[in-house]
């Protein structure tokens, strides 16, 4: 079974600075996707960024980027120029490449942004 | 305009009651899911339906019964509610067949269930 581990229950960053959230996963599959979801206090799950395992290039979405290390099974999220609105729970998630597969989530990291 | 909607958003009920949570998606997706988020924020899959057929059923008590009347709806019925059922329940949908982009899952706003 696949597992996803987020080793940082809480992280704190100063506004405008950069923070990196860690995620490791365990799988024997070769075809899979990785995601970072943001859950603000409103509890809505918002997709931040995705990465296909077959792509070597790290995904980037504006201030959000990932460091995907396939051999190490590591998928960290970097948030640049942190803003107060970035404060939320962040979840790393894995899914197999086959149709109809569910997301396996990590335990989450609570990110606090200090003004 | 909402992509994935759930009703109700909050549900407070007594132990032993039966309750339902409704989910609808207007994205034309062929697969829908139910996830449970416990008090420690841990999210776990409960069920997955593809074209109205059950394809994933994780270890969930049989008091929980999903029902999919059509591709756009996946309702969750819970019998004999217990204290431990208190959680936030999320519905999600994705397009797994042809045309799906990265098989991204879109989540509803969640339903906070409190069992007293």
Q: What is this entry, summarized?
A:
The complex is a heterodimer of chains A (115) and B (116). Chain A has no helices and twelve strands.
3D structure, described in words:
The complex is a heterodimer of chains A (115) and B (116). Chain A is mostly beta strands and 115 residues long. Chain A contains no helices and 12 strands. With 116 residues, chain B is mainly β. Chain B is built from no helices and 11 strands. Chain B has strands at 4-7, 10-13, 19-25, 31-37, 43-50, 53-57, 64-70, 73-78, 87-94, 106-107, 111-115. In chain B, strands 2, 4, 5, 6, 9, 10 and 11 form a 7-stranded mixed beta sheet that branches. Classes of the chains: A mainly beta (115), B mainly beta (116). At the A-B interface, strand 5, strand 6, strand 10 and strand 11 of A face strand 4, strand 5, strand 9 and strand 10 of B.
Keywords for this structure?
heterodimer; A: mainly beta; 6-stranded mixed β-sheet; 4-stranded antiparallel β-sheet; about 0% helix; about 50% strand; B: about 120 residues; mainly beta; globular
Kindly report how far apart the N and C termini of chain B lie: 34 Å
Query: What is the overall pLDDT average of chain B?
Result: 90
Q: Radius of gyration of chain B from the CA trace? A: 14 Å
Question: Are there runs of chain B of 5+ residues with pLDDT below 50, and where?
Answer: none
Largest pleated sheet of chain B: 7 strands, mixed
Work out the largest interface and the residue count of each chain: A-B, 22 and 28 residues
Return the average pLDDT of chain A rounded to an integer.
93
Q: How many helices of chain A?
A: 0
Return residue spans of chain A where pLDDT drops below 50 for at least 5 consecutive residues: none
